[in-house]
């Protein structure tokens, strides 16, 4: 039996206390530094979706670097 050597990519939803374009810009700058990560930001709903094989704790810690409150809502 062959083993697969790639990780499972999941789409995670986070609520981030973004109030303006500057906030979403900070999130964008932080997430673009991560390799192999795709993301979407919905500023009016204060939501960030991240597609990644990284663990939730790592993604949460990364998002917290923008200085905003972060809540994990689960996978989508």
Automatic annotation (TrEMBL):
Stated family: Belongs to the ATX1 family.
Gene Ontology terms, MF aspect: copper chaperone activity; metal ion binding
Gene Ontology cellular-component annotations: cytosol
Keywords: Chaperone, Copper, Copper transport, Ion transport, Metal-binding, Transport
UniProt-recorded name of the protein: Copper transport protein ATOX1
Subunit structure: Homodimer. Interacts with ATP7B. Interacts with ATP7A. Interacts (via dimer form) with SLC31A1 (via C-terminal domain); this interaction improves ATOX1 stability and controls intracellular Cu(I) levels.
Source species: Gasterosteus aculeatus aculeatus (three-spined stickleback)
Biological process (GO), any one: copper ion transport
Transmembrane segments: none
HMA domain boundaries: 9-71
Alphabetized PROSITE patterns for the sequence: HMA_2 (PS50846)
Entry superkingdom: Eukaryota
Coiled coil: none
Protein purpose: Binds and deliver cytosolic copper to the copper ATPase proteins. May be important in cellular antioxidant defense.
One Pfam entry name: HMA
């Amino acid at each position: 039996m062959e083993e697969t050597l790639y990780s499972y990519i999941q789409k995670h939803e986070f609520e981030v206390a973004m109030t303006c374009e500057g906030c979403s810009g900070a999130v964008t700058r932080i997430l673009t530094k991560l390799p192999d990560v795709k993301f979407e930001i919905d500023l009016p709903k204060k939501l960030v979706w991240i597609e990644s094989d990284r663990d939730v704790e790592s993604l949460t810690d990364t998002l917290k670097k923008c200085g905003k409150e972060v809540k994990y809502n689960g996978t989508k």
